[in-house]
Structure of Probable branched-chain-amino-acid aminotransferase:
Amino acid sequence: MSRIAYVNGSYQLHAEASVHVEDRGVQFSDGVYEVIAVAGGRPLDLPGHMARLRRSLDELRIALPMPPRCLGVVMREVTRRNRVRNGIVYVQINRGVWRRDHPFPPETVSPTVVVTARSGLGPGPAVVERGVRVATLPDQRWARRDIKSVSLLPNVMAKQAAHEAGAYEAWQVDGDGYVTEGSSTNAWIVTRDGTLVTRPVSADILAGITRQTLLALARAEGLAVEERAFTVEEAKAAREAFLSSTTSLALAVVAIDDAPVANGAPGSITTRLRALYQDHMRGAGAGDWLAP
């Protein structure tokens, strides 16, 4: 079956879909995106993703090109046409097409909207069972990491460096030695006394929707939680470590650089949180495409 994409009001063959050469997303990375998980044909945590999309657009002063419910209809239709039961929907909104000039184009220029969908969600069972290694790298990104911008070159370079080092992900480290986040994930540790620690939301990190849900699930489970920065050395000495994202859910980190975390195997708290999140996917997390 041929894949289908939505571009600016029409459904097109994925292989033929395109945007203009002077689209500002192409020339300036002047746009934002969201990745929404699909579980059983339903969107996961859609209200959180839509709220973050609106916030990112507002921060860049890009108008939402259609009402949220209409965008939900488009996402539902792209998912249906691609027969995605478990996978992702990708939404990208750029400022639009205008001659190449740094200042914003007139407000009459319509934003570019692209929506795609594909099957497949997260790493396979073997990866989940054994856990993954992360490599630490200096954080070289811009100062507004809270905006889910399509300007991802530093993230791409960090991910590539991690892969070349034989690691699953990069953990980026600020100038004071504290972990910010992964190249496409949020970073977590569990201290020796069982406290869950992850960096607080600020311009330093992206406010992950999976991160937000995991925090709520952990608190409901009675786990101690601290939103604070942690160093690479603290992470290496932790009882457990893991990363989270829309596609990875909660995935155990069993080694940081060349240092094993604890006994080098996924820990009980990470395993429990992943199970709770999977229950969430099958229950309250999977909602309606028309959520605001």
